[in-house]
């Protein structure tokens, strides 16, 4: 193998700038480079365009294998790549493991740890602000959030918002000014939305974390430099990329199905929660 393909589907401009995808890409690139391989990345606007890229790569021989991200249950891409006979490794949630090589991420455990952390600090009314876009990870997190809050003493609610600073600000304003039962903690899908939510809370005269705590699902420099600094999940993105690259190399060289679990994420405690 020499060239490995990675296609990121993103309707807007943020695909390669997300902390999660950026960390995964860096882990892939570094590991493949050490093995004398090259990561070929394409950003497309929808799933149809993603399949077109695979068709082109198959016809041209431009890549020897592929890394799949954001894999759903019964994902058409899995069948499609099998038909093209393009080897691949997927990065999937633990609930979406299939008959293919993969690195698994345990979103249920991550959400459980986050809610346990909030409960241990006295928070009881928690909202998860998820992306309105059709994102696999947000959908899985939302399901896990509702499952975990229903089985605990926490009051839990999911609110959908655009994965932008503006979308997060609008959602936060709605939650803290128009809600009958204002949340005392909000979990945001990423760093950008968490920072926007924090700023909106403060602009409304409320204190973070005194009135409302804020947690970001992905850690970054934005979380570290915010005032107050934002508590976040360290999602091990770089390690996931490294594991996926090694998983692909091993599965292609041995012909064996390889499934590897990523290390559990952990809470990076800061001032916002």
Task: Please supply descriptive tags for the structure shown above.
43% helix, 273 residues, six-stranded mixed β-sheet, six-stranded parallel β-sheet, alpha/beta, Rossmann fold, 22% strand
Structure commentary:
The protein has nine helices and twelve strands. It is α/β, with parallel strands linked by helices and 273 residues long. The chain has two domains: 3-106 and 236-264, 3-Layer(aba) Sandwich (Rossmann fold), CATH 3.40.50; 107-234, Response regulator (Rossmann fold). Helix 2 runs parallel beside helix 3 and helix 6 packs across helix 7 (191-203). The mean pLDDT is 92.
Q: How are the SSEs placed, and which strands pair?
A:
Layout: E1 3-9, H1 19-34, E2 38-44, H2 47-60, E3 65-69, H3 76-84, E4 88-93, E5 102-105, H4 107-120, E6 125-131, H5 136-150, E7 155-161, H6 165-177, E8 185-188, H7 191-203, E9 213-216, H8 221-225, E10 231-234, H9 237-254, E11 259-261, E12 266-268
